[in-house]
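Notes from the pairing session

We agreed to fold both candidates in a single pass and log them together. This is the raw record for the first candidate, unedited. Please don't reformat it; downstream parsing expects exactly this layout.

Candidate A
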Amino acid sequence: MRRIRCVEEAIVERYPEQQMRCPVHLCIGQEAVAAGVCQALERDDQIVSGHRSHGHYLAKGGDLKAILADLTYRNLDDEPVFAGKNTTTEFLARAIFDRLTQSVRDGTLGDGARGVTAICVTL
């Protein structure tokens, strides 16, 4: 939980520098949820969290540099896949869904995802 809180506080400290070009939904005060859920999981278990999910990612042992790299978002209009689109939360949820389903098809989520038959991205 301490690791999650330290990362969250660093994000709060650096966010005003405008290097993170996206809304950041922090999980300060909710670290125990991520830590508790992930402690109950086995090493090879998969988890998908759609809101304040970086806490879960870190609690599961995720790579800190990889998660912070995603927080240095570009303007989504500069990304060809999003250019000219109204990137509402609903639109982005669909993009996440599409990427997850493609990852399941490609087998890039590991053996634990082979039996996945349904995915729901909840806002």
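Candidate B (folded immediately after A)
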Amino acid sequence: MRRHRAARSDSDQTCKNGHAVPSGARFCAICGSEVTTPETTAEPTTVAPPILEDPPTRSRRWWRPWAIVVVLAVLGTAVYWFGLRTTDEERYVDALKAQHLYVQFGTREAAVTQGRAFCAKLDAGQEPVGYRSQQVAVKELCPAFAKGFTVVPTPAELQSQFASELRDKGLGGKFASDVAAAAFAKRTCSRLDAGGAQQGPAVDAVAVSVYCPKYSNGFTTLERIHVKATFGLKDSDPSSYFPDIVSKAGGCSGTSGYSDITAGREVLVKDGAGDLLTTTTLRAGHGSPPFSCTFDFSFTVLDGAKGGYSITVANRGDVHFSAAQLKIPGAVGLTLGD
């Protein structure tokens, strides 16, 4: 019994009769019965349930950092823009004051509004030309248009400049007022714009230099010709009863056939085309009646009249002269009679 127990103890198999059978045998060596393998009862293993983790999900707060960034960017841009704009406008107003141009606007709001409006016109394609105050606006409010900007004088500046130059050239007394002078200058330029001859007296030349300088290079300043002339009556064989030249108030005058030749008679001066240039009158006659009587007269014309000049006394016909002849002292002497 002791041997069987030992064998059993060394074996992990028994037959159905309980005999120990060596490991790997299929039949019991004692009783011959089929070997059965003892069942091993294992203690049930307690398996801990798996810890289930929440599936990875997108944070519902992912947008918050980005929202903060966007808000800060918008606020920063607004602060920068309005701060810059205010700075530009302040510089603009200060520049106007420094150049004594602020008085043209009266208020800061008017100056800024007009400055912004002018920049808008330039942005829309307007030619970069304007007054000094508009140039200041361009430099401070829309500097992209500053390069190539052309400054032109204001109407008030033109009027002041024209009046000043007239005075400098001794022509200040030509007009009743600066406004009248400016109106004359504008008419002069309009005549040239319409194709008129680019010539005229000194006052015209000054007007051109200020109001329409594009004509200055081709404009000819015409010389004034001051003419001292005479008109004489002659009668080599006067009638004793009805003379044509008689004494009158210490002087003489025409009568009978010359009754239209008296002091105060109008004298017409025309150009070669028959256009009237100026008028004058005969002064009191002097001479030796009944044989002669001379009337003095004078006038001023501009050099350069087309076709020369013609002088008419009463209705006694035209007498023609060139500019060169008018310039010769004493060369203009008209005579009626023999």
